[in-house]
Write a structure and sequence with these properties.
This protein has helices at 5-46, 54-66, 77-101, 103-106, 111-133, 142-147, 150-161, 167-170, 179-207, 219-246, 250-278, 287-292, 299-306, 310-336, 342-362, 367-379. By secondary structure, it is mainly α.
Length: 384
Amino acid sequence: MNAEPRPALASGARRSIGERRRSRWIAAAALGLISSTFSTIVSQLFAARIGRDAAVDWMTVAAIPARDWAISSEPSWSAILTGIAFHQWADFSWALVFFGLLGRWTADLRPMTILLLALPWAVFSSGMEWFVLVPLFPFWQPLFTLQQPYWIGLLVHGSSAVMYPLFARLRWKRGTAPDSDVRFTNMWMTGALAAIAVLGAVAMFGGHGYEPPWMGRDRDHDQAYIRHMTTHHAQGIELARTAAERAQDPHLRKLAMLMVASQTGENQIFENWWLSWFDTEMPDCSTEERAAMPGFLTPAEMRQVKTAPPDQFDALFVEAMSRHHRGAVRMADRMWHSRGDPRLRIMAHAIRHEQQGEIALMHGTSGVAAVTTGVRNMLGDNVN
């Protein structure tokens, strides 16, 4: 008589556990959609403030699953949208892992505790992508790690992780969340929307030549760097366009297209910063300045590459562009270690990493060697 209710109680307990598990996964999915969308918007609005061309970065992300198809001299909308979609899928997946697979330990935490754990989680998840998942298994795509320094992914993952405290509200059925969680998440969402509004306003004014004022300590040095790197990039773009048309190796052709896209975007940022900070037209570099730039090719050297026989073109291009890149790396390294505007220095660090990475890519670096090279490139000038 007394034994009959026990199966019913056990069944009810199992249903309760099952319902909690389903609710946890549903809340994790909702949080993943919110956090990935927030990081996408923040990344798009903030990129140019630190010298990044968001379209080129999305194209590089798209190349992780889509390979060479995504790469072009001017990022296409299909590549940009593919990059955004792949980024959102990745951020969505990390939220599912954090609150779904690890929900036994994370699903009942208080909002501030979630935030304190989510920020190290951003370090871990961005590190896993940059060091392992993208360059090694399962994608085996060295481009992302060699083209973008690790801290870019960390910033993106960090902007996603700051939305994780909203899980404290999403885990409850509508109308049943504790008042403390409701108040906290309302405040948190208001802050997130305010941040988007501020970044949107800054991006709008910045796009019209009104970036936040110059904040360096040596105006002449910063102006010289912008002028010189813009001119240096212009020659690199000219050389890369030739390779995009003439290279025999299809991967080298695509890499040349990426060089055109990235350096064109960086020059547009330089020009916008110059106009915003100094309110004048950027003067051209003199013949003497061009000759003194490290890695800057002479007219004869440019003609030699452009007129090379088809069977010699690839080797001559790789040699010339590697020398050109080494010069840009040296210039960027000097800016990184200078007292210049913080935005210029951050951008210079990324250029130093990117151009060293492209040298490695031109020479076929991949796998573990790409990761090792990427780490070394982030830490210093390893080609001069």
